[in-house]
Amino acid sequence: MRNIQNRLARPTLTFGALLAIGISILLPVQADCPATPNIFQASLLEPPQPGKELSTEQLQKILASGQMPVFDVRFELEYAISHIPGAVNIPPVNNTLVDREVSQISARFPNEPHAEFVLTCNGPFCGKSKRVAAALASSATRYDRFYRYQLGLPVWRALGNTVQTDFDGFAYIFNRDKTAVFVDARSPQDFSADTVACAVNIQPGEATTANDDGRLPLLDKGARVVVFADDPQLARKVASEIAKKAYWSSSYFSGTFADLEHSHLRIHSWRRCRNGMHRAETDDE
Questions:
Q1: Contact at 8 Å (CB) between 255 and 174?
Q2: Which of 159, 140, 138, 164 is closest to 149 using CA atoms?
Q3: What is the pLDDT of residues 186-226, one digit of tens each?
Q4: CA 45/CA 55 separation, integer angstroms
Q5: Residues 141 and 171 in one domain
Q6: 135 and 162 Cβ atoms separated by less than 8 Å
Q7: 205-231 b/e with 16+ CB inside 10 Å = b?
Q8: Do both 118 and 186 map to the same domain?
Q9: Is the pLDDT at 11 greater than 60, yes or no?
Q10: What is the pLDDT of residues 227-269, one digit of tens each?
Q11: Which residues pair with 120 in a beta bridge?
């Protein structure tokens, strides 16, 4: 009987030993396998082409650290209307030539083929950054260590990040987009004293309430929402909170209310207001 028990025990022991060996082999392999990336860690994974692709998370870290410049290769007005904060505009002459972009970037990194920088433009289907990347790789310097954020401005915004609007962009939106919402992030007292015609007052921490009480266009999440203040950082804070409420076309003005007040814009004109709503000021047109 003891011999029979011993014979039966041997396969069990052998199987257990093999299982232990298998686990010891697989555990390190599993540890080396990368976890499935989330949407912030993803890129397009396009076929190999000049410029290594970056994820949104990687670009956020680069901008926060300032470790390398980010070049927005869209047209000047596109950039002024909205751009990733911290990106530098190197605009094209037209929609096909890339000579100016290559010349300006080469001037920043003369004879530095391993220079590190990022190219970005209007998203997955934007060809500008790809054309510039190809030209830089084949240039006399043969740049070989730069990156592309090919997801671009649309995906940056869709993932809840705010963008910056410069004066020319603010003027374009103010004069042409009658559905745009302008948000004054200054104190209620300053807002009551003077503001942009038909602006709404939203303070830090009020985005959720404003989304519910009508100050923000709940049924039109794609409406342009531009935040301004006396301090651009305050405007950015409020714009960031609004972006997190799914207003993917929100932005903040890089200047101040005083800049708007002293500009050529007719900021007190109630004629641009939606639904005939306006403040009591006399129209300045």
A1: no
A2: 159
A3: 999 999 999 999 999 999 999 999 999 999 999 999 999 99
A4: 10
A5: no
A6: no
A7: ebbeebbeeebbbeeeeebbbbbbbbe
A8: no
A9: no
A10: 999 999 999 999 999 999 999 999 999 999 999 999 999 999 8
A11: 72, 149
Domain match, 114 and 202 both: no
Query: For residue 50, what are the domain limits?
Result: 41-157
Please name the residues in contact with 268: beta carbons below 8 A apart, sequence gap of 6 or more: 196, 197, 279, 281, 282, 283, 284
pLDDT digits (tens, 9 = 90+) for 29-39: 444 555 788 99
Query: In Å, what is the CA distance from 54 to each residue of 26, 51, 105, 106, 148?
Result: 30, 9, 19, 21, 6
Domain count, the chain: 2
Distance from C-alpha of 12 to C-alpha of 10, rounded to nearest angstrom: 5
- pLDDT over 90 (residue 25): no
DSSP E strands in the chain: the ranges are 52-53, 70-72, 88-89, 118-120, 147-149, 163-165, 181-184, 200-201, 225-228, 250-253
In the chain, the amino acid numbered 207 is: A
Q: Which of these three, 97, 124, 157, is where a domain ends?
A: 157
Q: What is the dihedral of CA 134, 135, 140, 142, to 10 degrees?
A: -30
